[in-house]
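Our preliminary data section would be incomplete without showing what the modeling component actually yields. Below, a chain of 285 amino acids is followed by its predicted structure, encoded as tokens that our downstream tools consume directly.
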Amino acid sequence: MVIVDSHCHVSPHWYEPVESLLSQMDRNGVERAVLIQMNGQADNEYQFEAMQRFPGRFVSVAWIRADRPDACDQLRRLADRGIAGVRFSATTRSPNRDELAIWRTAAELGLPVSCGGSSADFASEEFTGVIRAFPALPIVLEHLGGHNHPGADSPEDRKKAFDLARFPNVYVKAHGLGEFCQRRLPVIDSFPFDRPIPPLLEMAYERFGPNRMMWGSDYPPVSAREGYRNALRLTLDRFASRSEGDRALIFGGVALTVFGAPAMRWRAGRSTSQTGDLGSNGSAG
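Predicted structure:
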């Protein structure tokens, strides 16, 4: 099974450099990762550099100032350079008469959207309107359709966010248990959370299915929660009863398909396909 981390951040100025992420990936058998640019950071050069330095390990999802009048042109330039997607929030809008211009540009360029926001943002009629406007645009809800810490989203709003699974172009990212489970104090064994575990992973699976779920660590914020290893190991454990094929999709195949198309966004000297068949060797050249 090829494991792909669909959600991690790197920076020379904030959080951690790419080498720290690579160390965690290599220690935990993660072959590839999607670099998700931090909100507010419109300089995407470091992610391009990481792709060039470690071919075959990374693709880049960029963030731009969508409120600028030249945002659509900027997104086109980034697409020409090989980004695999763009990061918006559920409330991202363009500053002109066509409020959906930046979404329209992403759709025209074939750039999947990694989308952040609260469950209330995702549950809004306005966001549903965005999804309806671009039925062929892959939109991936980050953090199980909400925030990345327990108790920040109401159960009702989270359920409404999961209801977006009725749109076939909507996907969801499943991160570590620390995003929605309370830490046990003191931590005395290998399972560091209070029981019972909220059934959000199971709910997401039932709504989206394995073909529209992808695991992502949320590195390095995850290091302040359960840590990279637990974010992978404990989430894998929650899907232990599912088929090997389902697990392969959730922990790699879906991310390869969404962020690996069109071909050769993961550049390792091998051709890629829409099914995510990138080969088994993810080491740097």
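The radius of gyration is 18 Å. The longest strand covers residues 4-8. Preliminary results of this kind motivate Aim 1 of the renewal.
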